[in-house]
Amino acid sequence: MSKTPSKFIESIIFLSKRLKNTTFAFRGTTSLVIQGIDMNVDDIDILCNKKAASQANKLLHDYCVVKVSYKESDKFKSYYGKFKINGIQVEVMGEWQIRDSKGNWSDPFNASKDTITFIQTKGQLVPVTRIETELKMFSLMGRWNAFHKIKKQVTQMQGTKQQKLL
Which of 15, 120, 155, 164 has the most CB atoms within 10 Å of its CB? Predict the structure, then answer.
């Protein structure tokens, strides 16, 4: 059973409504749990384009911990900021890139239409990164334990769906 912070779904709905006119999606363990994958969630990650990342500074102003600005580390670069909603840390990543083990930067992840899907959650359509996109990100980050845990659950879910069809 997934472990999620108190007020997790409430925070997802709030953020979905607040960011509804921007290009964004929930990613990471947040996205996976919303899609039925058993993972622990400590924070909420939001993937978006540069424009939405900048708009987050205004739309989430009252919740700002670290204002969105361009940041680069050894492993990541993006328009990054932190917010706090209902006591949960929310990280915004616009045009997020991952440096792989060979030192190459990935193409930017920016919640483009081909990488997201929508899940109905408490009457609200919530944009989330597709599981295939998450698997790609986890592999680029070298998070192989999480990658295999996700892959195993996806395989089990597909098997269950096939059984229901028979």
Answer: 15
Length of the chain: 166
- What's the token pair of residue 166? 């028979």
| Beta-sheet strand order (sheet of 116-121) | 64-72, 76-85, 88-98, 44-48, 24-27, 124-129, 116-121
User: Domain spanning 8-165 has what CATH number?
Assistant: 3.30.460.40
Q: Are 43 and 89 in contact (CB under 8 A)?
A: yes
- Give the C-alpha separation, 146 to 137, whole Å: 11
Closest CA to 122 of 3, 17, 5, 1: 17
Neighbour count for residue 44 (Cβ, 10 Å):
25
Domain boundaries, the chain: 8-165
